[in-house]
Amino acid sequence: MKTALEWKKYYSSPEFREHYIYDKNDLGVSCTDSGTSFKLWSPSADSVTLNLYQEGSGGEAYTHIPMKREDKGVWSWSSDRNLHGAYYDYSLIFEGESVRSADPYAYACGVNGRRSMAVDLKRTDPEGWENDRAPEKGAEQIIYELHVKEFSWDPSGGFPEKYRGKYKAFTCPDTTLFGDGIHPTGMGYMKDLGVTHVQIMPAYDYGSVNEAGKDTEFNWGYDPVNYNVPEGSYSTDPAHGEVRIREMKEMIQALHSQGFRVIMDVVYNHTYSLDSWFQRTAPWYFYRVFDDGRISNGSACGNDVASEREMCAKYILESVLYWTEEYHIDGFRFDLMGLLDVDLMNRIRRELDVRYGKGEKLLFGEPWAAAETAIEGGAVQALKKNMRLLDENIGMFCDDTRDAVKGSALKIKRPGFINGAPGKENDIIQSTRAWCTPQHGSADAGVKAPSQVITYVSAHDNQTLWDKLAETLPEADAAERMRLNRMAAALYMTCQGNLFFLSGEEFARTKNGLEDSFNAPIALNRLDWKQAWENQPLVEYYKGLIALRTRLPGLCDKSARASERIGNVEISDGMVSFEVDNRSETGCQKWDRLKIIYNRTREYRHVMAKGSRWTVLCDGEDSRLWTSVKYVSPDLKAAPQSVLILGRLAEKTGGGTGGMGDMTAGVAADMEADDTAGTETWEKQAV
Ligand code: CA
Hints:
Number of domains: 3
Mean pLDDT: 93
Helix content: 10-25%
Strand content: 15-25%
Number of strands: 26
CATH class of the largest domain: Alpha Beta
Largest sheet: 8 strands, parallel, barrel
Radius of gyration: 27 Å
Bound molecules: calcium ion
Distance between the termini: 84 Å
CATH superfamily of the largest domain: Glycosidases
Structural class: alpha/beta
Low-confidence stretches: 440-445, 654-687
CATH architecture of the largest domain: Alpha-Beta Barrel
């Protein structure tokens, strides 16, 4: 066999690219009542044989069918029968050597994904699937990151025993704490919380959990085996290929019906093993190799998928479109997006926009890589420094905001603004503007608009927020940590950008300080619903913040000029305050201006709010003050280690709010005018 480098040269040659790039979208198996067709792209195979089986694992093939060589490296065979439920794999000959492979384009598979299955997808639709629709998009995207197994594993969740850890758990809308009938868990709890999007951690077929093994096996699942098939260990029957498909659709249907949009976590940057179906059917085509022959490992997982190669880009694009079409997925979170190329990401964005409307499907990812990668042909990586080359509706996890608020995710002892690091105030102001400067066209502005930013302080990676606070403030008591947890939440939820948090952040979730729990026991990783109710005051604080956020157009604005809404910034050691133009073109919002104060010092700090009509919306203890009118008093103070949010009641005019007026005049001019006009006495404001 050729070496990796020889293959690479061959695939890069004009001759190969002229003869073997296939542009139709019918690879894999199409299976309906009018027949079944098998198509595999394997440009270098000397022959390909299709093997059909009764079972998804074990046993011998009942037939071996030679595939016909077509143009462009495609092999095909078709039958006029509906072969739904037939398991299959391929035997390929390369330079005299025989290789066995499942189908990289498969839509279904047997247990552990080692054998593919022909599936008539219509037969996997749950009842009512044709009427399944995502809920309408709200004022803000508030994304809740969730692992299928972690969600329902703990007995405290009150889920039926047989559904614990499964897709099916999501179809139980009325679970309560140990089934007490009083305290909602699961779906009901999430609905009360008010998040708008549920981001499911990897749920395509991955390799690190034995689907025929013990139920207690656990992994996050960032190790893809079959990109277009659901993971089997979350189904009630991984041995029958149609079951996992139907049950994953049921999960999505249930989430939609409860008011959530569903985001899928996708890992196109690497595969579980280099010995993959890609590699077995097209040796080295789908992987990066350095010019000196070293295998590229920018993922730190042993291999990098070559997204810049035509057939690989096509694969990734079609896979994304398949999940949106067949499973009604509403958005994608790209793992190590920085390993993929800018052109592909923009192409995916365009294709989704054409089909579903501009920006309708969310698209974002990690704008980094673990190490250098052997990307070819001058392709540009979708890294943070290249955000300006990406569509304004391709977002990135904003590590700058994350680290500014609570300290470095990687240097665990290092604090951020809230837990005492000096000199973070400017980063905090940048965070509020989603790192878009007022002069958004200037060279130092890396981000086009808040739509490109995922604002967050915790995710599955690294320590939970609670553990990070414990790490950086070992002397603090539980009350202080709770106070800082509330402060962190109120701080990032008053920053522009899309909002995101790890499930359980809102109830002080802990992993006992473990930074990377990808293969830790489920007993550590599971959501502890008991804790959610023990820490109910914190959960309530999050609920109030989330509900308030959706009523603040000045912070929800995703346009390129949104940062201009933030002005009158004042900074001192441990204090940041600013005002937000909260007017909206469409809404009849209650407050036309906001004043937000972050006080991480241990002292009360006096706050000036010039002019009348200012009310308290949220303080360090209560995030629901906005539900009634509480005017600010002359001796208004921001409490130690807290966020204070004020809102100025909009003046009633004939037709509502009077609209935005001339937004191009910006927030500054309006605020200046207010300074001179603010002659009302404090007595008049106080109630
Ligand atoms: Ca699997």
